[in-house]
Amino acid sequence: MSGNPARPNDRDDALRHLALSQAQQAQAREFTEPGHELRRLFAEVLGTFFLVLVAAGAKVVDAASGGAVGRVAAITAPGLMVMVVILFMGATSGAHLNPAVTLGFALRRDFPWRRVPGYLAAELLGATAAAGVLRLTFGLAGDVGTTSVGHGFTVTQALVTETLLTFGLVGTVLGASSGAQNIGTFSAIAVGGYIVLAGLWASPVSDASMNPARSLGPALVAGRFADLWLYVAGPLLGAVLAVGVAHLLRGPGGGPTASEAAQGRPR
Questions:
Q1: d(Cα 201, Cα 29) in Å, to the nearest integer?
Q2: Which of 110, 112, 169, 261 has the fewest C-beta atoms under 10 angstroms from its C-beta?
Q3: How far is CA 8 from CA 3, 21, 48, 70, in A?
Q4: How far apart are CA 129 and CA 52, in angstroms?
């Protein structure tokens, strides 16, 4: 007999390379398929719509009902909605629902930059549509759920709060999406749970937005733009900081597991 039989390690390496190559080819085909991209964008519009409908709607209904909703319920509802959307739509689009999350995934190299404009537009469209429904249904009750600096707090305090809260949120999302962490149900629980916990202590300061789309949509519909810049600058800065810390803790991104979590795997 000539030659040596392939060693188990060599066969394993060859199988891994083959599987990775096939996954990359499938991913490349998927990226050029317009139907897949439309499903992603529609999922982002729909997911962000329901998130803002609940997050802003809690403030609106609370104001319209004379306080029947209450602060704890208004804080808990968006976190629960995020859990539902991640479980329902995460496999389609990654369920970003938030420009800060989209930026974080892109900076982490888990999400292609060419997709960023479409996702940002979809998130803003979903948020604005939700605010429009609230305006048509309840008028200007609760200022259509706009976010604002709390009484007794300064703009600087609100800016720092939004930055820190979003730093934690994006850090949680990136961590839950990495190959070393649990994905799927546990990711939904981690992200939704963080949103609830952050809101419980920080909502009196800044309404704990952590999401430029959530703040921009109601502001555009209500025409209330006071301090709106901090709800864009704070979360985006927090996302950048979270990516930097993720790099220090786990090295560079771009792995297949995180990329799938960030982009979904529509069929």
A1: 45
A2: 112
A3: 15, 20, 48, 62
A4: 9
DSSP letter, residue 179: T
Asked if residue 123 lies in contact with residue 94, where contact means CB atoms within 8 angstroms, the answer is no
CB-CB contact of 170 with 239 (8 Å): yes
The contacts found for 152-160 with CB under 8 angstroms, 24 or more apart, are: 153/204, 153/205, 153/206, 155/227, 155/230, 157/205, 157/206, 158/205, 158/206, 158/227, 158/230, 158/234, 159/230, 159/233, 159/234, 160/234
Nearest to 210 by CA among 103, 85, 117, 88: 103
Predicted confidence at residue 181, as pLDDT, reads: 46
Task: Report the pLDDT value the prediction gives residue 259, as an integer from 0 to 100.
Answer: 82
Nearest to 41 by CA among 111, 149, 119: 119
Q: What pLDDT, in 10s, does the model give residues 180-238?
A: 444 567 889 999 999 999 999 999 999 999 999 999 999 999 999 999 999 999 999 99
Q: What is the DSSP letter of 178?
A: S
Instruction: Name the strand (E) or helix (H) holding 28.
Output: helix 8-31
C-alpha span between 6 and 39 (Å, rounded): 44
Share of the chain above pLDDT 70, in %: 84
pTM of the model: 0.86
Looking at residues 163-167, what average pLDDT do you find?
A: 98
Topology of domain 35-263 in CATH is Glycerol uptake facilitator protein (1.20.1080)
The two structure tokens encoding residue 224? 């209330």
Indicate the domain borders of the chain: 35-263
Cβ(259)–Cβ(190) below 8 Å: no
